[in-house]
């Protein structure tokens, strides 16, 4: 069973998810102030400005916090065994909710402050999920 | 000097005694608790002229609830911000009564989360249900359960401040001790088939199953049925009620959500708390009773810090002194009814915080703190790591 997927039409986040189809991790910046905007929106939550542009992240960052989920009754996740949910701070200044993958044992091999890089997991819906793995 | 303003008082309370109520609807629980809370106050059904509702009654909120109950209220407030909604309602009721908009405000809550087999903590993240939103589209795909959401806050608190699971476990130990003195909590744990209905130790908590690192099973609240009601009245009405009034002397409301570069260990209580303390002219160290939303151990520790009971990051040391027990010489006593961890959590616990704080200030608790005069009820709604609300209510007896 597929994981829950982003659903459309949803105009704020559609450009972000469209870019994932090309394995591009994108975020917004206020052209006037330089504020980084994430999650995606049509305005800057600091000042209401709609003068935003999309940029591409290098996909490198640091684990801000995480938890290893031992129990999830959702049928897409129940068979996974322990898996890690995390907030990652990208070097460009935005924080994304994600999974940490590519570690032998998530209960012991993940630490806050660890450097990570994006790793894409393509979905049957056409979008790709930006997950992170130790850099 | 504690504020002497007397705008509105809690005059009637009722907690639905059962935590497993098959065949009963949330609306029926709300109506039964309303009648019993009005009786507790010595008021009549027809006295109610303000209706406060968190939209927890099967789609019937506001107009629908007024019709179901048979009220024609002058004020309707359907603020629905999760488990703290009832602290928001108490704050709004005080404001509305002070403005002369109503005299007798009714807050009700009903839920059959247990009988509906709702897996509140261990499903999801998002279920891909309801209308898509920017937030759901960024959070649904990662399998972040509600417990993992709170666990990420605990993990960060441990990283930043050296907090330990042993320290967090003390919160479970203290509230279980209170639950064992509360017959309804004991019945709740029996009906919900808890393993080991007894006082617990730190070791018991640490030896219980890890659900989402670093949170163990005995650091997580139960999922029960239940509900309750609170009647809040003007000073004129309160004077003639059956029980002594419990005055609302301060309130604060706030939101907090994940922000780029934000500090996950700070909650909405850091904004709502100071506003409430200032209005009440009270500080945390004067508080006898702290009723703090214990969805998880970490929730309590974060909010004790944010409310100013100790400095940010010192919660681990603060709760390690056995101070939280009802019979400790230190302040404050915490969640003396047994809390969401061991007495009652049907999904939105905020109303019960007001109930037990009121019992303490009336001298009616099963774990009565001697001469309790001041209490704080702090509700938390939503999800601690991603986005949540905080509602703070300060209560005083005459």
List the helices and strands and how they pair.
The complex is a heterodimer of chains A (135) and B (398).
Chain A: H1 14-20, E1 26-30, E2 36-37, E3 52-56, E4 60-69, E5 83-90, E6 95-100, E7 115-122, E8 128-134
Antiparallel strand pairs in A: 1-2, 1-3, 4-5, 4-7, 5-6, 7-8
Chain B: E1 9-15, H1 26-41, E2 50-52, H2 63-69, E3 75-77, H3 85-98, E4 104-111, H4 134-139, H5 146-161, H6 165-180, H7 183-191, H8 202-207, E5 210-212, E6 215-216, E7 226-233, H9 235-239, E8 246-257, H10 269-280, E9 289-292, H11 297-306, H12 315-318, E10 333-334, H13 339-342, H14 350-362, E11 374-383, E12 387-397
Greatest chain-chain interface? A-B, 47 and 47 residues
Largest sheet properties of chain B: 10 strands, mixed
Query: How many separate structural domains of chain B?
Result: 1
Number of helices of chain A: 1
- The top-level CATH class of chain B is Alpha Beta
Strand order of the largest sheet of chain B: 3-2-4-7-1-8-12-11-9-10
Principal-axes geometry of chain A comes out as globular
Query: The CATH topology of chain B is what?
Result: Peroxisomal Thiolase, Chain A, domain 1
Account of the 3D structure:
Chain A contains one helix and eight strands, in the order H-E-E-E-E-E-E-E-E. With about 140 residues, chain A is mainly β. Chain A has one domain: OB fold (Dihydrolipoamide Acetyltransferase, E2P). The mean pLDDT of chain A is about 95. Chain B has helices at about 25-40, 65-70, 85-100, 135-140, 145-160, 165-180, 185-190, 200-205, 235-240, 270-280, 295-305, 315-320, 340, 350-360, and strands at about 10-15, 50, 75, 105-110, 210, 215, 225-235, 245-255, 290, 335, 375-385, 385-395. The mean pLDDT of chain B is about 95. With about 400 residues, chain B is of the alpha/beta class. Chain B has one domain (about 10-115, about 225-395): 3-Layer(aba) Sandwich (Peroxisomal Thiolase, Chain A, domain 1), CATH 3.40.47.10. The longest helix of chain B is centred in the first third of the chain and has 16 residues, at about 25-40. The interface between A and B is large, with 47 and 47 residues.
